[in-house]
Amino acid sequence: MKTAPASFTQDAISRTKEILGAVNGGSMGAYTDSIGISVVRDHIAEYISKRDGYPASPEDVFIGTGASGCIKSIMKLVLTMDPANKPGFMIPVPQYPLYSACCSEYNAQLISYYMDEANNWTLDIAELERAYEASKSICTPKAICIINPGNPTGQNLPEENIAEIIKFATRKNLLIMADEVYQENIWGDSDKFTSFKQVLRSLGPDHESQPLASFHSISKGFMGECGLRGGYCELTNFLPEVKGMLVKLISASLCSSTIGQAAISCMVKPPTGDAAELYKTETHAILESLKERALMAHSKLNEIPGIQCNDLQGAMYAFPNIDIPKKAVDVAEGRGIEPDFLYCSELLESTGICVVPGSGFWQSPGTYHFRMTILPPKDPAGHLPG
C-alpha cells in the first residue's frame, strides 16, 4: 500500500482498505464470514434501498459463488426429505439450463410453464394456473422461478405483469425466485428495470408475508466478470428460523471467493471521488455500445425472410423464431436430431456463424428458435460480425 498512491486512485485505495478492514486477518486470502464480508453486504443493502425506494437490510443478504451458487442454495433449502412429497419448481420455458440441471441433481420435479411469445415473452397467468394444477398429482409445487430480464428471451417484464405473478404466488403459497442478473441491461428507450422486491413492497399488507429470493451477479451488466464468481441473494419475508437453516446450509461451503465479493462491492457502490468521472464514462460507453448492438441485431434479424424476432428489451441475447420448412423438419427427424439443431449446424457449416438451437432451452411444441448473443463488437464498417 505504500506505493499505491502513485499507481491507483484514492477511491481504489480507500475501498481496498475498507474491504480488507472487514476481513479477518486483513487478507484477501483469508476466509470470510460464510454469508459474506459484512461491509460488502452493507454496500449491497444500500444499493437495493436506493434502487427500489424501500429499505433493505444486510442481515437479509448473503453472498455466493455467482448468482448460480445462490440459486442452488435456495433450491436446496426448499427440498424435502420425504420421497412421497417431492418438491416442484415452476420453471419458465424457454429456460436457462441451470434450473433443469438442478432439478435433476436434487431429484426435484421441474414444472414447465410456457412464456407468451406473442406478447413479447410475458407470463400469462392462465398458463401458470395450468402448469400448477397439472403438477399437483406428481409433486408439491414449492417455488416459481422467473428470469427477468430474460435469458434466452430478452424480455423486460412490465410492472403490472410482475404484480400478477406475485399475486399468483401468494395464492398458491409459492416462494418466488427472481433471477435479476441482467438488471443493468435494459435497451428500450422507454423501458426501465423494476425489481420483484419493489413491486412486492408496493402491493401492501395482503402480500407482506410473501417470501421472495432475489439474485444479482457481477457476471452480467457492464462488468462481465464471470470468472471471479461473485453473486448475491436478498431474502424478503423469510422467517428467522428459515434464515437460520439457510446460514447452516451455506456454512458447509465455508465462504465464497473473496475477490468475487470485492468485485460485488465495486458493482453496487460506484466510486464517488477521483475515479467517479472515469467510472461513469466507461460504464456509459459499455452500456450504450451493448444497446446499439441489441437494436441492430433486432433490426437485421427481422429483415431476414423466415425469421421473426421480438423486441430486445433487455439482457444480452436474441431468441428469434425461425420458419423451418416441413421438408427440412423431415430430414432432421430422419437423422434423429431437432430441426433447429439441423438449421444451426447448416448455418455454421455454410457461413461460420455459431448460434445455439432453441431446443437446448426448450420451447413451445411446433416452434423453432435459436439464441444468439449481442456481445460480438461491430466491425469497422458498423456491421455485426457475419
Uncertain runs are none
Helical run tally? 12
Distance between the termini: 47 Å
Strand content is 5-15%
**H/E element string?**
HHEHEHEHEHEHEEHHHEEEHHEE
Q: What best-fitting shape do the alpha-carbon axes yield?
A: globular
- Identify the strand order in the major beta sheet: 1-7-6-5-4-2-3
Q: Please identify the structural class as seen in this structure.
A: alpha/beta
Total beta strand runs: 12
Radius of gyration: 22 Å
Oligomer: single chain
Helix content: 25-40%
Biggest pleated sheet: 7 strands, mixed
Averaging pLDDT over every residue, what do you get?
91
Describe this structure as you would to a colleague.
There is one protein chain. The chain has helices at 10-20, 38-52, 66-78, 97-105, 125-135, 159-172, 196-202, 240-251, 258-268, 276-301, 326-335, 339-351, and strands spanning 61-64, 87-93, 109-114, 140-147, 175-179, 212-217, 231-236, 307-308, 317-318, 321-322, 356-357, 370-373. By secondary structure, it is of the alpha/beta class. Helix 3 (66-78) packs across helix 8 and helix 11 (326-335) crosses helix 12 (339-351). The longest helix has 26 residues, at 276-301.
